[in-house]
Amino acid sequence: MRLSQYFLPVLKEEPKEAQIVSHRFMLRAGMIHQEAAGIYSWLPLGLRVLQNIENIVDDELQKAGCVPVLMPTLQPTDLWKESGRYDALGKEMLRFNDRAERELLYSPTCEEMIVNLFSAYVKSYKQLPLNLYQIQWKFRDEVRPRFGVMRGREFLMKDAYSFHVDVDDAKREYAKMYDAYTAIFKRMGLTTIAVAADSGAIGGNLSHEFQVIADTGESAVYYDAAFDEIRAGKLTLSGDEMRALYAAADEQHKPDAIPADRLRTARGIEVGHVFYLGQKYTQAMGVAVSGGDGAQVTPHMGCYGIGVSRLAGAIIEASHDENGIIWPESVAPFDAGIINLRMGDAACDTVCEQIYSHLKTAGLSPLYDDTDKRGGEKFATMDLIGLPWQITVGPRSAADGKVELKYRRTGEKSEISVEDAVAHITGQRTKRLAA
Amino acid sequence: MRLSQYFLPVLKEEPKEAQIVSHRFMLRAGMIHQEAAGIYSWLPLGLRVLQNIENIVDDELQKAGCVPVLMPTLQPTDLWKESGRYDALGKEMLRFNDRAERELLYSPTCEEMIVNLFSAYVKSYKQLPLNLYQIQWKFRDEVRPRFGVMRGREFLMKDAYSFHVDVDDAKREYAKMYDAYTAIFKRMGLTTIAVAADSGAIGGNLSHEFQVIADTGESAVYYDAAFDEIRAGKLTLSGDEMRALYAAADEQHKPDAIPADRLRTARGIEVGHVFYLGQKYTQAMGVAVSGGDGAQVTPHMGCYGIGVSRLAGAIIEASHDENGIIWPESVAPFDAGIINLRMGDAACDTVCEQIYSHLKTAGLSPLYDDTDKRGGEKFATMDLIGLPWQITVGPRSAADGKVELKYRRTGEKSEISVEDAVAHITGQRTKRLAA
């Protein structure tokens, strides 16, 4: 993408409304624009990140055997009266009448709708297990929306719902989804700890919250030191072994649960949640399938959420410095930025075009700053938007076929040939994707 | 995808509520499920088609230089009071209060929101032209939602909005978008005719409607015989030449506009619309940028819509037979179906697995019917869901390494080797994608 033909409205001023670093950088980097309290437009740069996050979630869930569907944002309220949650959700659930005075709601979550859909088609235990998921906009009318996309009202959520013939199969799926979540967050460059959690309003009796470890996290997380060893690559555990380790959120933490020398603590941001729901919804809504022996069976369910739009903020909270965002390669909006320090200089233009075309040919997405802005402003923008690599092309070095390559995460710079710069970026990326 | 692990709830009964063929087949093929009047869930097969359509639209628009954004589904009503459309849209626009009693609406279209977004960031003529688009869910509270996704209330729309320094540049963009639309619909296997249209409630004074030609179309279209020659490949015209040809919808048609022997008529389904809006919205909302000479300029706008979810239905209206859907290769949910006539037979299983794995290796998406259903049912399902190719593997021929290859569009069948079948499908697809 050529910046002159793109729409990247970076802000020079600090946005006053932003209380946390991710909100501040998302506004400054031209990723989002607020339309109403807790309701945002995603500008081009932000949308690319959001779609990269979506693609990782999609890919890992399909690998895990989940099947994608897409439910509407609006639904009739009738089903919520069947499940008993019509009153439970209160004002957080946005309800309104259509022109025919039928009551609709903007989905805050979809247990009722998916159970209804399931019961329309699935009649036999032979069709189980089944795990259906969607990535769709939800609305929760928070009293005090804040922190940008971290606690918005309209937000993008991945919600999956699984159906099983018995509790054992539901628990098998639960473990599989736990492992898929670990893989998803790892692929986004995040360290997460899954803490045993309270199941709250959704119901059920087994659940874990996935917390991204970040200094700016909203809640305290207590965990076994083994998690740090795993993170440092000194220890490898299976999903079962990981689930057996101690990890708890603030309100669940029991000080004497593990020896003090094994206890670690950090700040966390919740980005995912897995629940075993039991028969709560299928029972309330009277759903059954024929069992192997001819008797009717009420399916057991699990549900599994990921805050897709929230992740864009959480990744920034976990990965930034004072100059801006530092995107992990897997979610970066572009793989590399090319800075032309003197547009119109023949050597600079030629070298930039070469790099731009080589990176595209290699299947990468470069962002080429071909504007007539000053060098200082171009550097500041590139640091702010946090692409993994920066290639700076100035008139003196360009004449010698040299460029400056900078790795955003470490700030490390080197003056190398055009060919080496391209080879380095494409090679590093291949290595990282394979890891 | 293995059918035994998929969710494809085909219906054997004719759905009583469906009045048109696309609605009937979408319900029978397990593509959609109605949640409320005009509000649908997209089941796995339907979602794949919807995403294929989205990808084509995305790809062609980005080639045309449009930049993707994503606006929220809900927006505050204030801006609509500025533009003067708050009252104009009436009950079709779904409005409601949030918990703080602020009035919100579910976007039926986004001129106001994009103009507001534009004015927040774009201050100079140097940032023009700019064409921002999104593919996002919209809601229009139709009095009588009907025909499935063809006239739903919650629907997926691609809406693009362009900004220009003057009318000439807006008209240049208009022509470019007209050409992009022609390319988009052609890539979906559709024949469209763009008719001069009334600009209606959106305003402005130059507009074309893109109509898919289908016998079941809702309105009459009158056009120059040259369009038929273009379709038959006997004539090639530039966009400018095409726009100069006569084409009009029913209410705009003037019987003496072209010689009777040049006049043709057909039924059409509207799937896209391009408008030149002039300064209607920028003026009403007081938006200006600095011009080249320092004076303030009120930008000219264009807006360009495509009914993405409606297209899924329109394609079926244009391409089906009595047994089911006939998907064009570019939007087909899977490239080929593999029918195992005797699961558990060693030769059948081996041959099916071979084909399945070869097609996947070639980058195609096969759907493998590995269920224990009877042959007749498997054939009926494959015809109904309309994948371009069917490969049938029966015990006798499988033992000889032979399979039956069927091309869904023509019904043409041949008994050939496994290798030839795979080569044929991958080769044909390569040829078609290149065309």
What does this structure look like?
Two copies of one chain form a homodimer. Chain A has two domains: about 5-320, BirA Bifunctional Protein, domain 2; about 335-435, Rossmann fold (3-Layer(aba) Sandwich), CATH 3.40.50. The first copy, chain A, has 13 helices and 23 strands. Chain A has about 425 residues and is of the alpha+beta class. In chain A, strands 3, 7, 8, 9, 10, 11, 12, 13 and 16 form a nine-stranded mixed sheet that branches. Chain A has a five-stranded mixed sheet with strand order 20-19-21-22-23, sandwiched between helices. The mean pLDDT of chain A is about 95. The radius of gyration of chain A is 24 Å and the shape is globular. The longest helix of chain A is centred in the middle third of the chain and has 21 residues, at about 165-185. In chain A, about 35% of the residues lie in helices and about 30% in strands. At the A-B interface, strand 1, strand 2, helix 2, strand 3 and strand 4 of A face strand 1, strand 2, helix 2, strand 3 and strand 4 of B.
Q: Quick summary of this structure?
A:
Chain A has 435 residues and is α+β, with helices and mostly antiparallel strands. The first copy, chain A, has helices at 21-28, 44-63, 78-83, 111-121, 167-187, 226-231, 239-244, 280-284, 308-318, 346-361, 375-385, 395-399, 418-434, and strands spanning 32-36, 39-42, 67-68, 74-76, 95-97, 103-106, 130-139, 154-164, 192-196, 206-213, 219-224, 247-249, 263-278, 289-290, 296-297, 300-307, 320-321, 324-325, 336-340, 366-369, 389-393, 402-407, 413-417.
